TrEMBL record:
GO cellular component, one term: cytosol
Keyword Nuclease (UniProt): yes
Keyword Hydrolase: yes
Name of one Pfam family that matches: Exonuc_VII_S
Top-level taxon: Bacteria
Keywords per UniProt: Cytoplasm, Exonuclease, Hydrolase, Nuclease
Name under which the protein is recorded: Exodeoxyribonuclease 7 small subunit
Amino acid sequence: MAEATAAQPSVETLISRLEEITRTMETPETGLEGSIALYEEGLSIAEQCRKRLQEARKKIEVINSGMHKEKPAADRVQDLFTPGS
């Protein structure tokens, strides 16, 4: 999942930025206004990550449903995303 385009950084890059934001906000030198700006940026990045992970989950579900059609039930890989599978 390390793939990224120029317009869309990788999830790993986004998470690294969130970690950097957290470290910066923890320093007293950041100040209130700086912390608020960083908090807003962090919320935006977290939303991007949530959407990207949701897309990845949908892809996995499609892959898993395709596997279930191709293999007999006894040979299927357990679906870790669906309870009771």
